Amino acid sequence: MDFPPNQGLDQEEVTEQVEETIADNEVVLFMKGTELMPQCGYSRRALGLISEHREEFETVDVLESLDEYRTALNEHSGWETIPQTYVDGEFVGGSDILAELEERGELAETLDTA
After folding, report:
1. Cα–Cα dist 46/40, whole Å
2. Which of the 8 DSSP states describes residue 113?
3. 8 Å CB contact between 87 and 113
4. pTM, whole model, 2 decimals?
5. Which of 1, 91, 6, 113 is nearest to 46 (CA)?
6. Is the pLDDT of residue 3 over 50?
7. What is d(CA 91, CA 93) in angstroms, rounded to the nearest whole number?
8. In what order do the strands lie in the sheet with 84-87?
9. Exposed, middle or buried by CB within 10 Å (0-12, 13-18, 19+), for 19?
């Protein structure tokens, strides 16, 4: 059996999906893996922090087209690292920023502005 290389989305498709997802959802977490199976510790941490304060939010698994998601997200945030969290279309940060906001008691308010 032949397994072709990464059959992910092309850059234009990913950029369009990122823009639409950020615009259409109050809170979005772009992460490695899914809610049920996060594929990195940082994504798991971000997911856990958001879940403590919100029941409903969108997650996007970037692994299918990782390089394309990095490029598209960098255009929005200036950050190349994943996970990335957006609230009301604005970039909030990755897991470290979410943890800092939680430590200062500001994460619930940040996530509730939606």
Report:
1. 10
2. T
3. yes
4. 0.90
5. 91
6. no
7. 6
8. 58-61, 27-31, 84-87, 90-93
9. middle
CA distance 68 to 9: 8
Q: CA-to-CA distance for 105 and 51, rounded, in angstroms?
A: 15
Copy the structure tokens of residue 18. 């990122």
Average pLDDT over residues 77-96: 95
Quick one: pLDDT at residue 62? 96
Tell me if the bond preceding 4 is cis, omega within 30° of 0. Answer: no
CA–CA distance, 62 with 97 (Å, rounded to integer): 20
Length of the chain: 114
What is the SS3 assignment for 47? helix
Torsion sign across C-alpha atoms 64, 87, 48, 82 = positive
